[in-house]
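Q: I'm a student working through a structural biology exercise. My instructor gave each of us a protein and asked us to get a predicted structure, then write a short paragraph describing it. Mine is Sporulation peptidase YabG. I'm not confident about reading structure output yet, so if you can add a plain explanation after the tokens, that would really help. Here is the sequence I was given:
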Amino acid sequence: MKQGELVVRKSYGGDMLFRIDAVFDKMAVLRGTDYRLLADSPIDDLQSVRNPDELGGTKRARIQATESLKRMREERANIGLSQLPHFLNTDRRPYFEMPGKVLHLDGDPNYLQKSLAVYHQLRVPAEGAHCHESQMPQVLMRLLPKVRPDIVVVTGHDGVLKQREDWHKLTSYKNSVNFLHSVHVAREYEKHKDSLVVVAGACQSHFEALLGAGANFASSPGRIMIHALDPVYVAVRAAFTPFRETINIEDVIAHTISGMQGVGGIETMGRYRIGVPNLKSLTSNVDVG
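A: Happy to help. First, here is the predicted structure for Sporulation peptidase YabG. I'll explain a few features afterward.
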């Protein structure tokens, strides 16, 4: 077994696909390929995987991800139209859009690239950075005044330690304390929860602690696995909910892959605005004769 190899855990029935992050003696550190779970395992409990697409769990996760992206595209196509003033609600769209800007910090470089690809497809202005979860508070401190985002996502991998399954203690989690410190940094930068929307956490993260630190949305109320795209879905909905409206929490969470046990949050105003005039429309109507 070596770093970067795709494996499953035999003792768990091969239910989830992992990539080996590091090997120490007879133990391996694992990062989920579809779910944001950080785990460790004896090497002799691991089995190499040559065709990951043949795994049932991987198939389901990727089908769900495709469906989630399809929903985001459909919602993106219709966003804001019902809130437009009557004189703007025309086929010619004589206005321009200003979705909320996202700063996405991710502990997994592969997930970061997938997330940025989704933001790009949906025309959400976004900047991203890959860093270890423990470095996120320092990276946020540097990037927040530079990027000046409307929405911050701090995510990566997490998990409840087997030998410390006390949900109330931060020491029972692999990375929740790092996410919590990151939320503190975000709130020191901007205290108002409607001016900066913070989405924090990964698989099995300490939901209550992250909300208490100032996150608007966090994982995981039921200490379950969350899909790689769940934080992205929440951020996209925040980016495209009009600034005069409260983000529909129940609807957002119901349409994440993980659902109510995976993601929760508080009432928050959206970050989407429109403006006039649409410069492209003006240019097309200019009479140069």
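A: Here are two points you could use in your paragraph. The CA atoms of residues 281 and 287 lie 12 Å apart. The longest strand covers residues 18-24. It's a good idea to check both against the output above yourself.
Q: Great, thank you!
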